[in-house]
Write a structure and sequence with these properties.
heterodimer, A: mainly alpha, B: 430 residues
Chain lengths: 173, 430
């Protein structure tokens, strides 16, 4: 396979699995910009080693090995924010792999829960996640303090978590 | 600690607001309690899904589709010229005004040229970015902060080190020349050194011993590329101590992979065509995939705190450049760059590059500018001819034709215009 073919195949696989890889990174590195940096390093490592990838194996499983290495490397060097210990991050990544199916199921239930949010809560979630607005901006826009915005975000995520939980119970009963 | 306390602590961490002691407490909790670990996973997955999948969904208001590339003449926009001159031209050309204050106790080298945002961090932590030209510096770090900035250090014996692009180089004081390249690119012209006292260049992955030579070094956290134009360089890979000698006109790469071969290979013949193979080669920016499945490098913010007169925010996507099999890429007279990407809104886009002399060191930086107007998140294609590229400094060769390209970048100024570079390509035909 020439370089062009390999690159096209690699790009296709990476595009297909990038969201899942990023979600795994964000388990241990929740800050989005930091997680993007780790994903970046991970993508380069995957490309460098792509010649060794066995197409018979699932790409995501292969990629998650690199995620662990890059997350560990990031946690050792990152000093901008308080981070989890390497041991805790390892445990999270291992457990996330074991619970992958269950976590996927929960993710599918999130959409209707999100749609059921009151408009002002939905607006806040959209601002924070979709528009990447700073919390200070959200605070000004909504007439709250920064601390109040963080508290409200916590309550909304807690409500979404509870909603997913109850829908999960419903599908299992 | 109650479940509610767990929930609050976990969410605080997901928002990046825990301090060191809270992060340590959370880590201890996760390591010791399986139930807390599962709760963390569920909340973190919810956070990640909101931040990725739903955040990537297209926005409801969509402008009608039109053909891209309705580009205008950037040069008409005076405001942007001013901003770019700030970005590109903090060249302190005046003769040396060696500051009486904060002179290092044991000077190691002298800064002979500086352009763009560059700062010196002394070993006491003091940061200086004013009047650096002519400054004698001792132990400390020189930081070239932007893709278009560069600086030259000269040792008393005439050995010079040029930093280009985003590079951090620490100087070590002592009887021999020793430096640590944290990341980035340097070009070294070393005069012949006394026997047994080679110039030492340490990177995260290699130790280079230089007796007298011209070489270019690029380094990041996982690999070091050494390209030798004159003389001989000994490269020792740190992961296992394997060493090789790299003679003139050869190159070698030392990585963190102990199973990869470390050997000097002759530099290939120059080529004149090239195309990015993202995510490989990304120097700065986020590799990401859009909602409609296009891969590209999203420009990443870079705050240039030492830009004058005010700090400057730019958004940059940059790529290392080398041809097939790491061949040098030389810009021919008929060379045309084709930049393909997307923009969230109309923006002044700068396309630039760093070039070396063929088989030599740093030659210069060149730019072209356009106002790119396309419907939000629609593709644009911008063709830049070699003749459109202008040097950022009068001292550089007037034309980049015949020089070797080592890095290309695109950037926007002041705010995030949603610049995503999907590919950059050099074509040789008319």
């Amino acid at each position: 396979m020439n370089l062009g073919d390999a690159h096209e195949r690699f790009t296709r696989l990476l595009i297909q699995h990038e969201p899942a890889i990023l979600r795994h990174v964000m388990v241990a590195v929740p800050n989005r910009a930091d997680a993007r940096d780790v994903l970046q390093e991970c993508s380069v490592a995957l490309w460098r080693n792509f010649a060794e990838y066995d197409p018979e194996r699932p790409f995501l499983n292969w990629a998650l090995g690199f995620v662990r290495v890059e997350v560990r490397r990031f946690l050792r060097t990152a000093q901008r924010r308080a981070q989890l210990t390497e041991r805790a991050a390892e445990l999270l990544l291992e457990t996330a792999s074991r619970y992958e199916r269950q976590l996927d199921a929960r993710e599918h239930l999130l959409r209707p829960c999100l749609d059921s949010l009151p408009p002002d809560h939905r607006d806040l979630i959209d601002g924070y996640y979709r528009e990447s607005e700073a919390v200070a901006t959200l605070a000004t826009r909504t007439g709250r303090t920064v601390e109040a915005v963080y508290k409200l975000l916590q309550r909304i995520r807690h409500a979404l978590h509870q909603c997913v939980e109850s829908r999960l119970q419903g599908t299992q009963s | 600690m109650t479940h509610a306390d767990w929930d609050a602590l976990i969410q605080k961490h997901l928002d990046g607001r825990t301090d060191a002691s809270e992060a340590a407490a959370l880590s201890t909790l996760l390591e010791s309690d399986a139930e807390a670990l599962l709760l963390y996973l569920q909340l973190a997955r919810l956070h990640a899904t909101l931040a990725t999948d739903f955040a990537e969904e297209p926005r409801p208001a969509i402008e009608p589709k039109r053909r891209p590339d309705r580009t205008g003449d950037w040069t008409r926009d005076r405001r942007v010229w001013i901003a770019l001159s700030v970005l590109a031209c903090v060249l302190v050309v005046s003769a040396v005004v060696v500051m009486a204050r904060s002179r290092p106790a044991a000077p190691v080298a002298r800064l002979t040229a500086v352009s763009g945002p560059v700062q010196w961090v002394g070993d006491g932590g003091q940061v200086e970015s004013d009047s650096l030209v002519g400054r004698e510096v001792g132990a400390g770090s020189l930081e070239s902060m932007s893709v278009d900035s560069w600086a030259v250090l000269e040792y008393p014996d005439g050995t010079t080190v040029t930093l280009t692009g985003r590079t951090t180089l620490a100087l070590v004081s002592g009887t021999r020349k020793e430096m640590r390249l944290g990341h980035g690119c340097i070009s070294v012209n070393a005069v012949r050194q006394p026997a047994g006292q080679p110039v030492l260049i340490r990177t995260p992955t290699a130790l280079l011993e230089v007796l007298g030579t011209q070489l270019n070094v690029g380094s990041d956290s996982s690999s070091t590329q050494v390209s030798v134009n004159e003389g001989l360089v000994r490269v020792t890979r740190l992961v296992d101590g394997t060493a090789t000698e790299v003679p003139a006109d050869h190159q070698a790469t030392a990585t963190v992979d102990r199973f990869a071969e470390l050997r000097a290979v002759r530099r290939s013949q120059p080529v004149s065509v090239w195309r990015t193979l993202f995510p490989a080669g990304v120097n700065y920016g986020y590799w990401r995939v859009s909602a409609d499945g296009h891969g590209g490098v999203q420009a990443k913010p870079l705050l240039l705190t030492c830009a004058k007169p005010n700090p400057l925010l730019i958004y940059v996507a940059s790529s290392a450049v080398s041809g097939k099999d790491a061949s040098p890429l030389v810009l021919g007279r008929d060379g045309r760059f084709v930049v393909r990407g997307r923009l969230g809104s109309t923006a002044d886009v700068v396309f630039g590059m760093t070039l070396n002399h063929p088989k030599g060191g740093f030659a210069g930086k060149y730019l072209a500018h356009r106002t790119v107007t396309v419907p939000a998140n629609e593709p644009f294609e911008w063709t830049v001819g070699a003749v459109e590229l202008v040097p950022t400094e009068p001292a550089f060769p007037r034309s980049p034709v015949g020089l070797e390209i080592v890095e290309c970048w695109c950037l926007t100024l002041h705010k995030d215009h949603g610049l995503v570079v999907e590919s950059m390509e050099l074509k040789a035909e008319r």
